[in-house]
Amino acid sequence: MKRYVKITVIAALCLAMVITLSFIGCKKEEAEEGGMQVKTFENAGDITIGFSVWTMEFTFFQNVEKGVKDACEDLGFKYVMIDQNSDATKMVQDLNSFVGQGVSGIVVTPVDPGAIGPAVENARMAGIPVVCADIGKSGPVNALMISNNFKGGELAAEFLASKINDTSKPLGLGNLLPQWTYARQRGEGFLSKALELGYNVAANIIVQNPSAEGGYDTMQQILSAVPDVAGVYFTSGREAVGAAQAIQAAGKDIWSVGYNGDPEEFQAIKDGVLDATILQEPYYIGYRSVEILKEILLDGKFYENVEVPVDVKLITPENIDDIAAEILEKTGNSAFPAE
Amino acid sequence: MDDYRLRQRKQIFGVYWGNFGLPLIFVILVAVFSITNPNFATSYNILNNLSFASYVGIAAIGMTFVIMTGNFDISIGSMLALVAVLGSSFAPKIGGVAGVISTLLISCFLGFINGIFVTKLRIPAFITTLGMLFVFRALAFIYTNNAPVYISDRFWLYLGNGKLFGIVPFPVLLMGICYVIAYLLLRKSPVGRYIIAVGTNSKAAALSGINVDNIKILVFTLLGLFVGISAVVNSANLGSANPGLMGQNYEFQVITAVVLGGTALSGGNGSLGGALVAALIITFLDNGLGLLQVNSYWQQVATGLVMIFAVSLNKLKFYLLGQGEF
Predict the structure, then answer these.
(1) Total domains present in chain B
(2) In this predicted structure, what is the pLDDT of residue B8?
(3) Average pLDDT, whole number, for chain B?
(4) Number of helices (H) and strands (E), helices first, in chain B?
(5) Is residue B293 part of a domain?
(6) Which of residues 114-133 of A touch B (CB under 8 A)?
(7) B296 contacts in A (CB within 8 Å)?
(8) Which domain holds residue B53?
(9) How far apart are CA A162 and CA A178, in angstroms?
(10) If residue B233 lies in a helix (H) or strand (E), which one and from where to where?
């Protein structure tokens, strides 16, 4: 037994020595490497764009991908895409793999924006610029294309106020998890505008299960907490549809607004279940992300940690057909669920 | 006589197949991907894949021990998230080294708790670890209020992103050391013999004087330790510890690697080398298909089929050794 204790102690000491020596070596190496110069190009044909997508399961990301792909085609760039399959570890592995492949620029919609920092740093050290297409960022990204979520929340509050028109009536909010820093601004904009307009948001509940079922459950909690609630805003699409169905099941007359512009929301508005939603522009986010990379790689323009806000729109039964036609024309995808 | 020779040859082939079948599949995969995509066989890509294989590979060591005793643990994904958020939140206050040590101690303790429930309270491992899966994840959410913990400690980040002498990614080195120590423990120490004995026949092991409960508690604690190491490496790779997103489906990936590697779910029989090669196959397959721009749904189909194929080849080994039907 003594022998094994001795072996374990020696092994632990050796490991500690290896870590210490290599850590010291690493510090020296990093100090020598220096800045994050971008490698620029003269011919578009020499440029390859790598796109790392959260998942291709949702229409939102399919439209981002279409935007990225179309922009690459239009600008004469080569294009490679890897699906993160909603896995943060795979996302980082894929981003490192792009560096190994020697892509010229990277567009990423990160499943976990807090987790891309070291991978972005790795890419930047290799002279590869990185643009985040929505969701959020960490690390030294060149740019982040992000929907103007705060304004979206304000639009939702203004819509509810215009319909209810009575400041004594309470409002409800189905909010996002705190980890979604940027998307949480959808709720902050709503709370700020509601306060400005003189309304009381009596219930502000986080949807713990981000799904239609989660929205349904949260709406039931809001109904229990504030039985006379006159209007609710849910900060994500599927949750909003679930909440609107809970309102219908309860037989109440409550105004409801969602966020995203998912096909389920379009259908729910068309069916009169949901009253409105805030539309993001995923196709434009994808397309513009590649244009920014073009400006960096071909035109030598300087982008460093720049946030580019993308406008959002209010969709109501009055304008839904026009906007659906516009989406179909731009992206080739129907705004409504596939038959 | 002919029958005897045939049986003998089958057995010899079975032994070789058992030892080299899985590595052969790995070599074939690497060869196919190297031929079909010039970006696959670069040293950068290979080292990147080896580094990420450690995420599953290190915990697979502990899971091999646990499965060898006839148990399994499905709480490790949540355990990974909990110890990562706890340790990384301590690091700014107590320093990176102490933060890492505290992560490992906490993860050992959580594994120990699982072992106590399974042995002393006689709750089946499936029920215990299913319950703990919810408890650990919920504690991670409560502790962080659902917000990710960002890691800035250089030592911690180095453990996932550093390179030894500027070449070998540190997770690869760490995984190698873990496998060597685990091999010595399993094959060269009495503890390893006790683990195999408990898994083969726990009643016989108890009759021969082995404290079966202590061995089971030990393997759950060891699994906790290896999950703790994976938690440090993984959170360093990601630069943050996210209570909701870390370790999702982790238990599934680790158990897949162990079973694919030839460890029987019924216990007793186990292979550390097999688990390592299986972890490499899973990682390289994923990367190779991605480089070939295979649609992610087809990737899942291909991964599933390769796994079924690999496990069926494992069955072939038992058939050739005369230990089962094919």
Answers:
(1) 1
(2) 75
(3) 89
(4) 13, 4
(5) no
(6) 114-118, 122
(7) 55-56, 83, 85
(8) 41-248
(9) 29
(10) helix B212-238
Determine, for residues A22 and B162 on separate chains, whether the beta-carbon distance falls below 8 Å: yes
Instruction: Give every CB contact of residue B1 below 8 A, 6+ residues apart in sequence.
Output: none
**Residues B29-34, mean pLDDT to the nearest whole number:** 93
For chain B, say whether A27 makes contact (Cβ under 8 Å). Answer: yes
pLDDT digits (tens, 9 = 90+) for A313-332: 999 999 999 999 988 888 77
Using 70 as the pLDDT threshold, list the residues of chain A that sit under it: 1-35, 179, 339
Complex ipTM over 0.95: no
Question: Look-up: residue for tokens 């070596």?
Answer: A25
Convert the pLDDT of each residue in B241-280 to its tens digit: 999 889 988 999 999 899 888 888 888 878 899 999 999 9
- Which of A80, A138, A178 lies at the smallest CB-CB distance from B145? A178
Q: Residue A299 burial (CB < 10 Å; 0-12/13-18/19+)?
A: exposed
> Does residue B213 have a pLDDT over 70?
yes
Residue pair B235/B160 in contact by the 8 Å Cβ criterion: yes
- The pLDDT, as a whole number, for residue A180 is 72
Measure the CA–CA gap between A219 and A245, rounded to whole angstroms: 9
- As to burial, measured by CB atoms within 10 angstroms (0-12 exposed, 13-18 middle, 19+ buried), residue B184 is middle
Give pLDDT, residue A31: 40
Q: Measured between CB atoms, does A13 come within 8 Å of chain B? A: no
At residue B165, the pLDDT reads 82
A56 CB neighbours in chain B (<8 A) are: 296
List domains and CATH numbers for chain A.
Answer: 44-141+282-310 (3.40.50.2300), 149-280 (3.40.50.2300)
Q: How many beta-carbon pairs below 8 A join chains A and B?
A: 123
Instruction: Find, among B57, B101, B95, B102, the residue nearest to B261 by Cα.
Output: B57
> Within the 200-239 window of chain A, which residues sit less than 8 Å (CB to CB) from chain B?
206
